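step: validate -> pass
step: tokenize input -> pass
step: predict -> running
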Amino acid sequence: MKLVSAVIKPFKLDDVREALSEIGVQGITVTEVKGFGRQKGHTELYRGAEYVVDFLPKVKVEIATSDEQLDQVIEAISRAANTGKIGDGKIFVTALEQAIRIRTGESGVDAI
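step: predict -> pass
step: emit ->
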């Protein structure tokens, strides 16, 4: 099993959710986060004063998936979140040792 964590632009969340639903992903966790990468933030004007926005609003999407479905999940996120501009985000894949469904006690792939 793998845990896929993707940090994407907030307005791409619906596209990513739909793309994951199309390939049969049944559950995702979404968190509003802030951060920066190569963008390094940007400057904005507010009431005539310029100020720097260091941390940009992003959305973190987490999906627990089987090893067999991993490539499909990565492809779906990449396709749906891509705008072709800087700041599109990143996808991280980590090993997931165990998953347990609290209600039924199922574990492993059956729990996801």
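step: describe -> The beta strands are 2-8, 29-35, 42-46, 49-53, 56-65, 89-95.
step: cleanup -> pass
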